[in-house]
Design brief:
Bound molecules: zinc ion
Strand order of the largest sheet: 4-3-5-6-7-8-9-14-13
Shape: globular
CATH topology of the largest domain: Rossmann fold
CATH architecture of the largest domain: 3-Layer(aba) Sandwich
CATH class of the largest domain: Alpha Beta
Number of strands: 20
Radius of gyration: 20 Å
Distance between the termini: 35 Å
Order of helices and strands: HHEEHEHHEHEHEHEEEEEEEEEEHEEHEE
Number of helices: 10
CATH superfamily of the largest domain: ANL, N-terminal domain
Structural class: alpha/beta
Strand content: 15-25%
Largest sheet: 9 strands, mixed
Length: 381
């Protein structure tokens, strides 16, 4: 991002203006300079990144999402006529999934009333009440949220049972998928996307993720950047986005571990099957005694990034009511960031019903890396 002006192909796109735009919540999904769709990500290196895409790139994303995404995988009602779809996730900021959702609502008036978003930054009982009132046929969300909803269903609190749950954004384990399918008695359809290329891979009827390899190139490489053989996970993965010519991403380090398989899938698709080890953060159980308060990892990340501007962090649970927040940042900036982060986190935890949680902070200490090679940002006890 420090070389943004050298890198972007339209010189009228300036990083400072984009950052100002992305910090204004009143203009989510508005066109920037009348023609660009803009979103932010926390970036693989812990530095926030901004991505701008033009109409051509968005047309590619839309087409891939429609023709290969979960909608056409449905056995009935692929157009979701008359059905409500709920997006449960981070709303209110310029995040890729939320900007895309909001943009679709504006482009397609028929979708406007049926596509609802529900923030996951609220207490679980409020979230469940919203879903019960909406009774959506489809819930699009993160695997960790889907698991939480499965638990709410088993506890008898979630009445609304969707026909399908579409997941993405985090790793979905086979166990988590089974748990959600059984508890909600619905189908789970997974996909894989990134802020750098939103519709990266979709699941086929055989349950495999297929890379949209006609528009995105992924290379699994070792720690010296050399390609690893098919069937092996690299140390990291390089992405080339063939759709976005405004902000070209060529062999961009995604920091996810991806395995590309050579064998053709039984579904007949010739797009390569991939396995992704991306974000794999824990859901925290806070409080002494039962019931504990469950806190979703992506909600914690959203609070720390969005409310406190802290992107380089690891939050480790050290006791039922004790958290350690560490950052690799140093100096005065780090201290003020941590103070802001602790205040935002405390407020958030109290709102969620987790009282009396002590948060300790440490600067100059980078988080430990998980099995994916990424820093695991939220680590449960
Ligand atoms: Zn397949």
């Amino acid at each position: 991002m420090s070389r943004f002006d050298d890198w972007v192909t339209d010189p009228t796109l300036r990083l400072d203006a984009l950052r100002r735009f992305a910090s204004d919540r009143s203009c989510i999904a508005d066109p920037f300079l009348d023609r660009y769709v803009v979103w932010e990500s926390s970036g693989s290196s812990g530095q926030p990144a901004v991505f701008a895409q033009d109409a051509k790139a968005m047309a590619v994303y839309d087409a891939l999402g429609f023709w290969r995404g979960p909608a056409l995988r449905r056995t009935a009602n692929p157009w979701s006529v008359g059905e409500r779809v709920a997006f449960v996730g981070a709303t209110g900021g310029h995040f890729a999934s939320w900007v895309s959702m909001e943009r679709l609502r504006r482009l397609n008036p028929a979708l406007k009333g049926r596509l609802q978003s529900i923030s996951f930054l609220q207490r679980a009982d409020d979230l469940v009440a919203e879903l019960n009132a909406l009774a959506p046929a489809v819930i699009a969300t993160y695997p960790s949220v889907a698991v939480l909803l499965a638990q709410e269903r088993l506890a008898g609190r979630l009445d609304a049972v969707p026909r399908e749950v579409w997941t993405g954004g985090e790793d979905l384990s086979a166990a988590a998928r089974e748990h959600v399918q059984e508890a909600l008695n619905c189908r789970v359809i997974n996909s894989c996307g990134a802020s750098e290329f939103l519709p990266l891979a979709f699941e086929c009827l055989c349950g495999n993720l297929h890379l949209n390899s006609d528009w995105a190139i992924l290379e699994a490489v070792d720690d010296r950047g050399r390609e690893v053989p098919a069937g092996e996970a690299g140390a990291t993965t390089l992405l080339t986005n063939l759709a976005n010519h405004v902000q070209p991403l060529i062999r961009y380090d995604l920091a996810d571990r991806v395995t590309l398989h050579a064998a053709v899938c039984a579904c007949g698709s010739h797009h390569p099957v991939i396995d992704v080890q991306g974000r794999n953060d824990d859901t925290l159980q806070l409080g002494r005694g039962a019931p504990t308060v469950q806190i979703l990892p992506l909600a914690l990340s959203t609070v720390l990034e969005d409310a406190a501007g802290l992107f380089d962090f690891q939050l480790e649970q050290q006791g039922p009511c004790r958290l350690l927040l560490r950052t690799g940042l140093l100096g005065k900036g780090a201290d003020s960031s941590l103070r802001r982060a602790r205040a935002a986190l405390s407020d958030f935890l109290v709102q969620q019903g987790a009282h009396g949680v002590h948060i300790h902070c440490k600067s100059g200490q980078a988080g430990r890396r998980g099995r994916s090679g990424k820093v695991q940002r939220v680590v449960a006890l």
